[in-house]
Amino acid sequence: MLVADGIRPDTLMSAISTGRAPALAQLRAEGALHTVTSVFPSVTGPAYAPFLMGRYPGSVGLPGLRWFDREGHATSRWHRTRSYVGVDFGKVDTDLDSTTPTVFELAQPALGALHVIGRGLPPQHRIGGSLGFGLYALATHLRGGVDGWLAIDRRIADEFAHRVQRDRPIFAFCALTGIDKASHATGHDSPKVFEALSIVDALAGRLRDDALRDGRWERTHLWVVSDHGHSPVTQHDDLATQLRHWGLGVRAHPWVMGANHDTAVMVSGNAMAHIYVNLRERTRQWWPSHTARWQWLADRLLALPSVDLLLFPTSDRVCEVRAHGRGGARIVRERDRWAYRPETGDPLGVGPLEGLTLESAWDATAGSDYPDAIVQALQLAASPRSGDIIASAARGWDFRARWEPIPHVSSHGALHRDHMMVPLLLNRPVAAQPRRTVDVMPSALSALHIRLPAGLDGTSFF
Ligand SMILES: [Zn+2]
Predict the structure, then answer these.
(1) pLDDT at res. 405
(2) How far away, in angstroms, is 71 Cα from ligand 1 center?
(3) What is the 182 CA–ligand 1 centroid distance (Å)?
(4) CATH: 3.60.21.10, 1.20.1420.30, 3.40.720.10, 3.40.440.10. Which one for 2-61+96-230+415-447?
(5) Residue 208 vs residues 107, 212, 237, 262: alpha-carbon distances, Å
(6) Residue 145: band (very low, low, confident or very high) from pLDDT cuts 50, 70, 90
């Protein structure tokens, strides 16, 4: 399983059709290229939970790249915040729901490279997991150079192919992040992105050639997928600064210490943000109980040009969704059925929908601006670690202007289709239509004849 982190379906399609990805073209000729949806937030880390756990990020405890620890069980009592961008990176595994197995725990022996979620993977089966590598990656991050990231990808790809050939794991996962870094710095269809994609292509080609030579190819599945898309961003709205202008004490990275914070702003990607209020409360209060004190904040946020949608978690089965000028609607889950009920408007633009199954909820929204938003909004809103308000950025905007090492010309993280639609390239035909990245892990287990654990959010397409 190769993650070409941040590749858009159209970018991959264009590379294949213009001969710039010959090995991936070969895979498509043998199998198929599908377009599926990622998860909300559409951001690296949380969006790996589908590949490695078959679950949505909200339900396994990874609501974002940054989040506020309302209960205070997981983080330092001095600030109660988490950011996986930096030193907290290694805490993903302990933050995860301990009762949900990872694919590494189910399919052994396994190999992982830049996997983010690694529970069950022994240190000697991890590539890029050492402290030395972490410091090198951090230095590359702070220097902000794309070429440094591409050099990392080449190193990781080489090591990964070598280890697959030598150790013959039954499951191997490799993420390459060069496409994402290049997209942020120079745009999703820039030459640097195609250079980064050629590293993924070369790796796929080498894995195939090695397997063919050893007579393993007939039994090998080789899949290439992405965790999110990308779209151009021309304007940055620093949400934390905005809230400070409105007179609030705001906790936001990198400065998370301090008293007198009324709110916390935790941005991912950078096109989504969790906004927390009443930081002293240790148990979650649903949005309706906040309206007396905080409705003004919701109204002001909604009026910002940078904000496209706001979600208001109302209970673990209901959330409100609002958009400026497009009114509000309610998303409701009743047992295994979802409904979308416009009230003062139709912010998702899909009309009223009742009695949706997981499949029909996807089908009804797949062609809209917000594919799979009904299921995705609710899985995140229901997470105990999510904000009291969840913001999804408008096209062309994101939510973080300060403290970014690379000036972003492209972003992701939001609910809209440029960020949610991703390619899924398989070297085999499928039995059922792949819809979501969360279907990838159960399908991998089926292909390996491993029994699926209970409680997965996805289903196998084999
Ligand atoms: Zn990114």
Answers:
(1) 59
(2) 28
(3) 9
(4) 3.40.720.10
(5) 21, 6, 45, 55
(6) confident
